[in-house]
Amino acid sequence: MSDRDVHRLQHMQAHAREAIALAAERSRVDLDEDRVFSLAMTRLLEIVGEAAARISEETRMQLPDIPWPDIVSLRNRLIHGYDAVDHDILWNIVREDLPLLVEQMESYLT
């Protein structure tokens, strides 16, 4: 695994952790009512997806348990479909999917 890919995996992990930490003190309703919180969560997931998009194919194949297409697709949806972000989906990703991703990153990066 290249140093660049390790760096990108670290970005994915750090930004996923930050999203989880921000959401821990909030509720789903906050995504609708707090614009700054909503923008922060969206941006953190965009960064996770952008870092994933830059991971080499070789590294992706070494880490097949990570749903690379889903992560990159989410990033694309958030960037290009900015006017139609479904907060229910965003909340579920942060609460259910990101903790697993962080665990996977921890096992790969240690």
Textual characterization of the structure:
The chain is an all-alpha fold and 110 residues long. The protein has one domain. The chain contains six helices and no strands. Helix 1 packs antiparallel against helix 3 and helix 1 packs across helix 6. The longest helix has 23 residues. The chain is globular and about 40 Å long.
Radius of gyration: 14 Å
The percent range for helix content is: over 70%
* Number of spatially distinct domains: 1
How far the N terminus sits from the C terminus, by CA atoms, comes to 13 Å
Beta-strand residue fraction: under 5%
User: From the helix content, strand content and strand pairing, which structural class follows?
Assistant: mainly alpha
The average pLDDT score comes to: 91
Count helical runs. Answer: 6
Biggest sheet architecture: none
Which H/E pattern describes the elements?
Answer: HHHHHH
- Count of strand segments: 0
Gross morphology is globular
* Unreliable stretches: none
Briefly, what is this?
Helix content is 81%, strand content 0%. With 110 residues, the protein is mostly helical.
Feature tags:
110 residues; mainly alpha; 6 helices
Architecture blueprint of SSEs:
Layout: H1 3-24, H2 28-33, H3 35-53, H4 57-62, H5 68-80, H6 87-109
Helix pairs in contact: 1-3, 1-6, 3-5
